[in-house]
Amino acid sequence: MTRSIAGSESLFERSKKVSPGGVHSPVRAFRGVGGTPRFIREAKGAELIDVDGNRYIDFCMSWGPLILGHQDPDVADAVRAALTRGWSYGAAEPYSLELAELLVSEIPCLEKIRFVSSGTEAVMSALRVARGATGRPKILKFDGCFHGHADSMLVRAGSGLAEMPSPDSAGVTDSVARDTIVIPLDDDAALEEAFALHGSALACAIVEPLPANNGLLPQREDWLKKLESLCRKHGALLFFDEVISGFRAGFQGMAGRTGIKPDLVTYGKVIGGGFPVGAYGGRAELMDLVAPQGPVYQAGTLSANPVSIAAGLATLKKLRSSDAYRKLETLGSQLDAGIERIAQALPEASITLQREGSIFWIVSGARERPDPVVRAPSKIPAPHKERFARVFHALLEEGFYLAPSAFEVGFLSTAHTEAHLSSFLESFEKALGKSR
Ligand SMILES: *Cc1c(COP(=O)(O)O)cnc(C)c1O
Fold first, then answer.
1. CA–CA separation, 109 vs 107, rounded Å?
2. Does residue 1 register a pLDDT over 60?
3. This prediction's pTM
4. How far is the centre of ligand 1, averaged over its atoms, from the C-alpha of 21 (Å)?
5. Which protein residues are within 6 Å of ligand 1, measured from CB?
6. Of residues 379, 398, 395, the one with CA closest to residue 387
């Protein structure tokens, strides 16, 4: 049986006339997998319902924020209560104070924090702090990490380390690109060379400590520690972009998981519980450089919006006080075991699951020995992309919504159940069998 998507098709045609690609963020357009993006009418728990009434178990979860699922009742109550008191004051208020105090008391690397409205804005602001604090121009970043769409982060590596980096988007100037050094992940030699060449000009090194925007690419802890020690040695700040890993790799994120104390850290996604919130923070003396306390300017009309903050606060309080992480880990182990079983049943597909907590990525195609973990984009097996598109559509037809790209991760939420995962695994095996 093929599901009708006539409603989505007609809305997409209309939407293409009034918005670029018919969408308001590129991957939503399904370009990576082909076909018509589903227009979603509503969502509840682990389920999305499109405008044609088709239901999908959602493993995209709004790209990560919805760790408690859609319309969690406690978050919904907090949002409704906040709304009855008004939805924007543009003035000091107690709501963001409560969230700031919670975070500063729970996360060791966080001495002060400032709320903004997106991860992009958080990264952009923290980079300005790094440059303001050090008086240095250059930023070190890693190929395969994504940090939002600030100009200086839309830069790709030159052909060799000594080569000029180049813009990765039209509209980014060479002069901006020149100040962003891009090197591979999981490469000790490149790290040492980059610091040897540019160390004294580096304001900071920015890294997703658990890269999750180009597949899930877990890094070796000794590589992260090497990055930390090179930063210290050369006087560059260490900047963890925890917009995805924050509150997913445990409440304290990867900083807590590894015991590494970054100077600057950014949050987004889960921190707003599905509403627009971003945050940057870190050492107090760095954050005190921010206006009005210090000379680094940053402001926002809707920063610390009370409704968004209420959603974030309710989400984080529930995460901390419930057995949410244990539940997510149980679901994750079920996924591990299921994928392992399928991998053995269908050895030709050579699939593996890379998973950290509630973030997962299923890779297909042979991997390199002796380290079969994919840790850098260059190590992603070639057949992965094309196979993903076929499996994606087969799963969509069966009622499972994965992020529409081979290089996006999946997210579990506490609204998922063992039954959801069992039926997903069953459909996945079927889809994989057919796609060969
Ligand atoms: C999503 C993401 C961003 C950008 O956040 P937006 O809220 O989409 O602007 C930045 N960094 C990382 C690591 C992200 O995953």
1. 6
2. no
3. 0.97
4. 21
5. 118-120, 123, 146-148, 208, 213, 241, 243-244, 268-269, 278
6. 395
